Amino acid sequence: MIKRTLVTIALLAVGFFVSLGYSALLPNSEFVNAQTNRRTTPTQNTQVNEVDRQFFIDAGQAGLGNIALGQLALQRSTNPQVKQFATAEIQEQTQVKNDLTRIGSRLGVTPPTTPAPKFQASLARLSQLEGDRFEQAYMDEGGVNAHLENAALFQRQAALGQNPDLVAVANRGLPTIRRHFSTASAITKYQFGQVARRYNNLPNNSGTSAPQGNIRRTEGGDSLPENNPSPTGGGTRLPLENTTPTRTNR
């Protein structure tokens, strides 16, 4: 009788300890949660969605393209304001490039090594310009257009991206993008949606400037010559037909 009682107690004790071990494996267990957090943190940083993947490619290609444009501006421009802007742009894009390289090594992917075709085309065209026309074209393309595109790219990533490291890159970059866009807009007198100048219908070796209008001056440096904007925010004014009704004598 005593042995049977002792065996029963022993079985109950074994069952109790087994149940404790099993409960430690349940999702609500503090032990499991603590271990899960340590194990899943690196995994979460490697999770990406389609927005992340496209941002990784587009931001990498844009960075290379804008670095190349900035380097060209440092070689060609004699305007201190343009050179200062190009230097800041190279620094901005180099930081993004380094961030993507670091994150890419963790994700097991390699950032782009060449600019997108549109940047290559822009570089080819700007390489044919000189003097004021080059400086105007650089500030329009590398200043205004590049930051309009980057603003949309980085905003989308910050809002819809899944990878926390890439989202952090976007959030860090947006204030710089906004600041550089404001500077470029002030220099070029940019208004949203306007095409102030055209560069694809000029002679290949154009060192002379096209007829210029008012000069926009901003604090802290020289300013670029500007074409007179049209009343609708466009570039050179086109001749308009006379739409005034003709008065008929009766």
> Hey, roughly how much beta strand do the residues contain?
under 5%
Low-confidence stretches: 16-43, 204-250
Structural class: mainly alpha
Radius of gyration: 31 Å
Major sheet: none
Oligomeric state, counting identical vs distinct chains:
single chain
Mean pLDDT: 74
CATH superfamily of one domain: Ferritin, core subunit, four-helix bundle
Elements, N to C (H/E)? HHHHHHH
The CATH class of one domain: Mainly Alpha
Distance between the ends? 136 Å
Tag the structure with descriptive keywords:
250 residues; mainly alpha; Ferritin; disordered C terminus
Summarize the structure.
By secondary structure, this protein is an all-alpha fold.
Description:
The chain has 250 residues and is an all-alpha fold. The protein has a domain of 127 residues: Ferritin, CATH 1.20.1260. Helix content is 63%, strand content 0%. The chain has seven helices and no strands. Helix 3 runs parallel beside helix 5, helix 3 runs antiparallel to helix 6 and helix 6 runs antiparallel to helix 7. The protein is elongated and about 105 Å long.
